[in-house]
Amino acid sequence: MKKAIFLDRDGTINVDIGYEFSLEKCKLLPGVIEGLKLLEKYYVFFIVTNQSGIGLGYYPHETFVEFNECVLEKLGAQDIKILKTYCCPHAKEEKCDCRKPNKKFVLEAREEFNVDLKNSWVIGDHPSDVLLGINAGCRTVYLLTGHGASHLDDIKEKNIRVTIIAENFLTAAKEILKRNNGE
């Protein structure tokens, strides 16, 4: 079985620019490449992202795809491979089964790619990312990048049990490796 890292996208991998997607604003966050390089020896990578802007009519699905391809190209240029991107295009009000913290996409990845969820991680900058990890039986990293710092009180007030809280992606990657003893 494979161990995986399930990555939120906006605010975790790339700069979160809200609903104003443009390829000119497609920039990776500092430390992401270095962190993924450390982790790639032991983990496969997936993106799991909520894109409610599609469901709310702020941008079409095609715009999401173009921006996601830009992110994947930037990662690919550094020989980092994302096995698959899972995208929930629904608005929160639609109450679908694929919006984080629902575990539908993580379970699909488990089946399609033979992923060991117990030894996998979910990394993101929203409480819903942490709750996804908990719901799926993974360990979790809450990043203070993107929206992370502004939602930290929510994590604490709701007593959401996070495995690691990290200032940035590179710090998170190093802490994951410490916890796994590099296995």
What is the structure about, briefly put?
The chain has helices at 32-39, 52-55, 61-76, 104-113, 127-136, 148-157, 169-180; strands at 4-7, 44-50, 82-88, 121-124, 139-143, 164-166. It has seven helices and six strands.
Helices and strands in order, then pairings?
Elements: E1 4-7, H1 32-39, E2 44-50, H2 52-55, H3 61-76, E3 82-88, H4 104-113, E4 121-124, H5 127-136, E5 139-143, H6 148-157, E6 164-166, H7 169-180
Parallel strand pairs: 1-2, 1-4, 2-3, 4-5, 5-6
- Large-scale geometry: globular
The biggest sheet amounts to: 6 strands, parallel
Cα end-to-end separation:
13 Å
CATH class: Alpha Beta
Bin the strand percentage. 15-25%
Within CATH, the superfamily carries the name HAD superfamily/HAD-like
Q: How many β-strand stretches?
A: 6
Q: What would your notes on this structure say?
A:
There is one protein chain. Helix 1 packs parallel to helix 7 (169-180). This protein has a single domain (4-114, 130-180), classed as Rossmann fold. The chain contains 7 helices and 6 strands. The chain is of the alpha/beta class and 183 residues long. The chain has helices at residues 32-39, 52-55, 61-76, 104-113, 127-136, 148-157, 169-180; strands at residues 4-7, 44-50, 82-88, 121-124, 139-143, 164-166.
